[in-house]
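Dear Dr. V.,

Thank you for agreeing to look over these. As mentioned in my earlier message, I'm a first-year student in the group and I'm still getting used to reading structure tokens, so any feedback on how I've presented them would be very welcome. I ran two proteins. I've put each sequence directly above its structure. The first is here:
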Amino acid sequence: MNRIAAQAITDLQDRRDDMANGPLVRDDAQRCMDVIDSFQRATNELDLWNAEYLEPRLPSVSLNINGVEISVSPDLISRVVRRDGPRVGQVFIRCTIGAGGDAAEGRRAEANGHLATIAHLHAQQYIGDLGTVHPQASMVVDVPRRSVVRGPTNSARRIANIEAACAMIAAVWPTV
């Protein structure tokens, strides 16, 4: 993970320091570096060191659920080596804006849970060759809140909700 972050910082510093870029691009690069710095400081607190992190496969293949194509672009692949073999999953790093305890906090937590489940479903289809896909290896890291939401071990209800939502979208989409 340090190698990936170091390369990102180098690229962002180049973008920030290149005066050919506009002020918004340079400011965005600085903000991204601030988030990476915050993420690196939080990794011990979040207990993220038990895995090896790999760059995601590019381009990322879409996930099709009940006729709805979902674009899934993970930030990392996690790989945890266990006695029974490696467990793999996908990681999303979120840098959402908003203060803790605000009105959107509950919706944010629920969205992170759904995203962790979608990460697990995507991992099942596309990275099983790297090891056993395990729900707890897929996660959403919410950097500002310093929290980690892992894929649920019992995800049947959440998967059923996602499938039902996709079926509803597929049914309604032709009329939109």
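The second protein is here, in the same arrangement:
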Amino acid sequence: MDNPINSTWTHTSPPTFAGPGETTLRTALGNDGYATLRRHRRLTDTALGPLAELLWTTAQEANRLHAELRYYAQNTCDHLRHVPAHTNHIGATPLGFLQHTSRAIDLNSTRYAQQMNQLNVVIEAYKLALLTA
């Protein structure tokens, strides 16, 4: 049996789901740039600190909105699964089941698109600030 102290086997954590905000950051900045962003978030003596924090919170908000959209999509699917059970009732229509979630999905999808656009703008501002720093 191998000695666990001298073993070359390393434990790797299972991959976690990265939301679209974090994925966009990693794609735009690369792994090294992403690590640099994390360091810049702690800076308080330059403008890079607040800008890095803005970039981070913008990405986290995009992740939150994406998760909310996924919730509403699942909720809509659940409602649709129950439609056949209620179609034998007089006056029951499938549209009644979707009225609540359709408005929420419309608002959230618009807000999500705005957030992703804002994230791209902040990424460009951060990259420009890195060039001038």
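From my reading of the second output: The two ends are 54 Å apart (CA to CA). The chain is about 75% helix and 0% strand. Does that match how you would interpret it?

Kind regards,
E.
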